[in-house]
Amino acid sequence: DNGGGKGGRGALIVLEGLDRSGKSSQSARLLSFLEGKGCATEGWRFPDRDTSVGKMISAYLANESQLDDRTIHLLFSANRWEKRSLMESKLLGGTTLVVDRYSYSGVAFSAAKGLDIGWCKAPEVGLLAPDLVIYLDVQPEKAAERGGYGGERYERVEFQKRVAEHYHSLRDSTWKVVDGSLPMETVEEQLRELAMNCISECQDKQLTNL
Ligand code: DGP
Ligand code: NA
Ligand code: NA
Prior knowledge:
EC number: 2.7.4.9
Organism: Triticum turgidum subsp. durum (Durum wheat)
Bound molecules: 2'-deoxyguanosine-5'-monophosphate, sodium ion
Largest sheet: 5 strands, parallel
Shape: globular
Order of helices and strands: EHEHHHEHHEHHEH
GO molecular function: ATP binding; dTMP kinase activity; nucleoside diphosphate kinase activity
GO cellular component, one term: mitochondrion
Pathway: Pyrimidine metabolism; dTTP biosynthesis
Number of helices: 9
Distance between the termini: 29 Å
Strand order of the largest sheet: 2-3-1-4-5
């Protein structure tokens, strides 16, 4: 049994948004909802700080190490590449993945530093394409008010504003923008509906690449 998928593949569902947009709590809520529905689901997140590449990223974000902008960009991308084959086998085996951040973070955060967008996108080409990208839309100022930032490298309002602009330019047909300033339960309800529709629609669709 591959769990609720009626033999079809799992869905690749990505949550994107600024820091403190509510992605992590909403991912967790969505995950337990889908599990409760008997759907084979796993929650993933990028950066995956547990791998050796992820540990380098984590040190960089904590300002414990300094890396050239392009170097850290490629490490974030490598961190997604090192999980690609596992991601593919999970999806083909019928497991839906709810992923907290993906390639769009990669492009938006690096482009916000002034790197060329085309250059930023290039290493993402060939990673698995999401079936659904849910963008939690929160004003940078509002996000900053939410209990403040944790002190990591990118957690500054001016920088997050530029990230937001780049996110907006990345929207495509797989994106659904959800107003992340609505009450948590309302956001949660919208995510449930988007995810359930996506899971049933993509069962017979082929996996594609970015
Ligand atoms: P999180 O663990 O979701 O709080 O993400 C850590 C920080 O790293 C957050 O500020 C977003 C940023 N980030 C996530 N993915 C990437 C990426 O691929 N490239 C860059 N430059 N930044 C990223
Ligand atoms: Na963060
Ligand atoms: Na998060």
